[in-house]
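Late entry, written up from scratch paper. The run itself happened at the end of the previous shift, but nothing got recorded in the book at the time, so transcribing now.
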Amino acid sequence: MLSVAQINDAVQRLDLAEQSLQQTDLMSLMYPDMTMEDAYAIQYGWVEHKLQQGRKLIGHKIGLTSRAMQQALNIDIPDSGIMLDDMLFADGATIPKGRFIQPRIEAEIAFVMKKDLVGDNLSAEDILDATDYIAPSLEILDTRIYRKCPATGVARNVLDTIADNAANAGIVMGQQKTDPRSVDMRWLGAIVAVNGSIESTGLGAAVLNDPALGIVWLAERLANYNDHIRAGEIVLSGSFISPIETKSGDHFYADFGSFGSVNLYFA
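Output as recorded:
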C-alpha cells in the first residue's frame, strides 16, 4: 500500500498536470508496487482536493466495459471515475481551447437516477426501478498522465487510468429523455460523425451485454467502501465505441436514432 505522503504527492502531480496542461509521469512507474486500491485512493484524493476547491460531485462514469478494452489492458473488470459539476457541458457546447490536454470522445448511455442505490445484491431490475431516465451522451476523456512514458516508451496501465479518474474529464448530454423500460438498451446504438464524416458506430450490447449491468457493478463496488449511488446523480454506463481523437475545429455529432442525438464543438 502507498503511504499517505505518496498518495498526496500523486494528487498534487495530477492537479499540476491539469492546471499546466503538462502531463505527469506514469504512476505505475513511480510506484511499481502500487495496487488497484492505491490507484483508487489517488483518485479519491484528487476528487477530495477538487471538492475542497468548491466543486460538487454530480455522478460517476464507468469505463473499460467492453471485452476488447479489457483484453487490451489485461483485466477482467471495469473501472470507474467521478464526475464533478464543472465537467458537465450543454448539448451543442463549444469546448474552449486550453480546457483539456489530449481530449478524446466516446459515445455512451447516461442514466439519471431518481432513487438511491444501496447495497451489493442488486439486479438490472433494481437499476431500472431507480432510474429517472436515460439520455444519449458523449464523454470527454482526457489524460493528465502520459499515455506512454516519453523516456521508456512504456504504456500506461489500468492503475494509471484509475488514478487519473478513469480518464474522465467531461460529459455532454443530449436533450431527449427516455424511460429505460421503453427500449432494449442492448440495441441502442450511435452513429458518430466528425465534421460530417462517419467515424464510428456501436451498440449498447458492447457494455457488459446490458448497460444496466454496468450500474450494478458500480453499486457493488461503491458498497465495498460504504458508499452508494445517490438520487439525482448521473451515471455514464460505459462506451460502446473506441475513443476518438479530437483536434481544434472538430464538430462531433452522435446520432442515436429514435433515442435522440448529442453534439459538441472544439474551438
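Residues 56-266 form a domain with the Fumarylacetoacetate hydrolase; domain 2 fold (CATH 3.90.850.10).
(Scratch paper discarded after transcription.)
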